Amino acid sequence: MESQIIEIDLAKWQVDTPNDQWIAALEAGKVLYFPRLAFGLLESELGLLTPAVRDPKVRNISLDARGHLKGAAGGAEQQLALAAMVGRFREQALSLVHTLLPKYREALRVAPTSYRPMQVETRSQSWRADDRRMHVDAFPSRPNYGERILRVFTNVNPDGAPRVWRVGEPFETVARRFLPRAKPYVRWQASLLKALHVTKSFRSEYDHLMLQLHDGMKGDMQYQQDAGQVTMPFAAGSVWVCFSDQASHAVMSGQYMLEQTLHLPPEKQYDPSSSPLAILTRLVGHPLV
Known about the structure:
Structural class: alpha+beta
């Protein structure tokens, strides 16, 4: 299998000259890995590397675009320190993306930035929510009509523990395997889901098919075991970037990670024909949104 991980020797949060090969690899669903690109914590922030900073009722701590912190425990001082740390990561992640992919800059929509202090291995979840099973990202309640999900991750583990992923096959390979098993799209069902507020907006055929791929992959234990894949330990003090709606991945272990999500209209890519929307449209043979 052709490598799905591209290692890049960059040690600062700006790319001096955009690299066409890196851009093409990212848009083909590969993971860009920056082993020397560390997010430096301040001495005063080391005390935030504990699960105790998270409200036990939520999965992650997040900072929205307006600077509102959600999901944090502790008093005002600790919450301010968390907001400052997460906000600084957002600035650096945006600096990386804007210089790596300058054409995206005007089109990107910034989603909340998250801090995940919990240990992956000990999370108990339903099979659909279990990210230790290989999947492409798709969300049952939030149809996105093909909008891309670009993510920047950094491992800030203070003990040097890696964040271990499995990275799987190219998106088109996955789609060709699971599309024949997909349940047919039914418009009245999509209308009913919206009327019942199960979905925030009308679920398009694209969103339906992406959920079918997501659930098909996670529900097939033979596939999880036998699919072409590599185990990738992302080192503490490293960064990786991917389109998580396209890169087949599973998160196996690790603790203490910061993550920035960015949304991009698929037509704003360097190569719009490489998007999941374009690939699924071509495979199905009719418009999906």
